[in-house]
Amino acid sequence: MPSLAERLAQEGGWAAGLDLTEGLAPGEVLAGAELEGCRITGAVLERAVLRDGTFTDCTFTGCDLSMVVLDGSRFTDCRFVECKALGVGWGRAAPAPLSTRPWDMERCRLDLGSFRDAQAAGSRFADCSMREVDLAGADLRRATFAGCDLGGATVAGTDLREADLVGASGYLLDPTANRVRGMRVDAVAAGGILRALGLVVED
Predict the structure, then answer these.
(1) Pair 93, 70: CB distance under 8 Å
(2) What is the SS3 assignment for 50?
(3) Which residues contact 190 (CB under 8 A, 6 or more apart)?
(4) Which residues of the chain have pLDDT under 50?
């Protein structure tokens, strides 16, 4: 089977509305690709390099994106469903200012990844494992984290204004070290936040 890079080379580096299952070998580079409305299913892209690509209205389902390199690639209104994406530096992707939802991820494994300093306002994370993810300095205004496991996540200098963390678990958050006005949390998380301030919370 040809690799994704070889398949797209046959399309002149541009593809729209295709169903793609081809992957990339570790270290293989896919540079300058333009995909619009494509469905990428079950592709293995572990440790591959997606450089300076443009992905618009694409859906990644059941893909292995662990430690993929996203240098300069732009994702506009894309969805990731049931993907394994460990140790990914999401903040290295290019900003997508026209995207209504910079990152839309559902039932994905995002452990050990980094959104450090990422422009990700309005992103949606649903039922994702985000253990030990680095969120420091990220713009996550209005982002939602329903059902996400944020155990061990780094939250420092993070903009979480109007973010929705109801149903998220595992995180420790110091409101004095982050921007949190309008952030929504449930009662259990609120207790943890108060403990971070040194208050004693009694049942």
Answers:
(1) yes
(2) strand
(3) none
(4) none
